[in-house]
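Handout, page 2. Input:
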Amino acid sequence: MSKKLLFGTCLLLLASCSVGPDYRRPDFYSDARLQKSLNLKPGADKVSLYWYRDFNDPVLNSLIDDGLRQSTDVKIAIEKMRQARQNLRINSVKYLPTVDASGSYYYLKDSRAYTGEPLSTDYFQLGLDAAWEIDIWGGGRRLTEQSKALFAATSANLQNVQLALTAEIASTYVQLRQAQEQLHNARRNEALQSSLYDLVKRKYEAGLTDDISYNQASYLLSSTRETIPQLEASVNTLQNSLATLTSKLPGEINGRLAAGETNLVRQPLRYDTSRLYQLPVGVIRNRPDIRALEYQLMAQNAAVGQAIAELFPNVSLSAFWGYQSKNMSSLIGGGSNTYNYSPAVKLPIFHWGALVNNVELQKSLTRENALQYKQGILNAASEIKNAADNVEKEYRRNRETEKSLASQQEVADLTNAKYQNGLVDFSEVLTAQQNLLNAQNNRIESNADIYNYIISFYKAVGGGYDISSIPDTRKAGRGAAGALCKG
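Output:
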């Protein structure tokens, strides 16, 4: 009895250890280096998940809400997360004992030539089969660890899809409002230039101006009119893009997207640029895509332990308890009960180097994943830095476009007045009108670029998604052995 107890104790002690390396986060770029590189202010609050509401546009808010609820990309990411959760639940019990109920009937009629008599045999069996492959070296626990990390990766990927969708809807919406405002200005200029053309035409017919002025007026009006179909096509394309992003058919949301009295790109967003640097130090590592890369690294690190565990002996137990009888009527009861158990050990000896090479393969894959994680951090830091710089520089440009537009509007008004009084040639009117249209478009473009750069900034810093919203893997893999290692 003491020997059995000692044997069982040894098995429990062995089953409590796991071969292979425990996960430790790679020491790529300390928080201090990242903080200095991005000029981050310490003690900053986390980014709001609803950053786009600062744009104060109810239509945009409703489009993003619809997209997050109805987008097929989001729903696909949710299904992948559900699949990973079920896979975790499967793998977390793969190395636990299993019990199956079984029943069988066997009939044999012997050959007369063999026995000399026409003998037959009936055989009935009913019972429970149990099997357990003991996870001595921790291969099963590493599998559970890997499945937990992969589940967390799909959760982070879902957040990344939601973030990308939010930014895409916001950016496309700004582009739509930009195209609509440019179309509005083109039509307004068309009306003004049409009146100007009529004036030049009357002067030309009265012999008060020459062919050059008349043709210049015609050219100015035609060049403005030719931009209108292009802008109309752009508006239609962007409306259809927003419909697709919100899982609607083309035309279904055009009513909501129609140009109204207000348009967010008519004025630049009033934004405190100091917020560009008031970010938590861990903003990069907390980005959904960077967290997904780290979870992939954690999963691959666990795969190394699984490969190493295959190099060691495998111990398994199997057992049966039930009833056996030649007669159905006496199957249960009497002396028909039976049981057996069978421990087994399997020691890998010669596999042509496959097991050792698999360990090296998994280690190489782990190093590759670590480099991808490092590259992800580099890319994220570059994106944040570029986005912050672009926002600040675009505000500087925007102030100049405002001055330029005001000046050019005054020039155009004075030139028109002088022409009507016969003080200047029409060529000056033509130049002034073309410059005015360019100044108007530059102003609208700069206003829209401010919004787009701010959208890029919030996408670069993770859009407010953080690790606290990742589902608890302990609930996802209820009953699982082991825990997700964290560095």
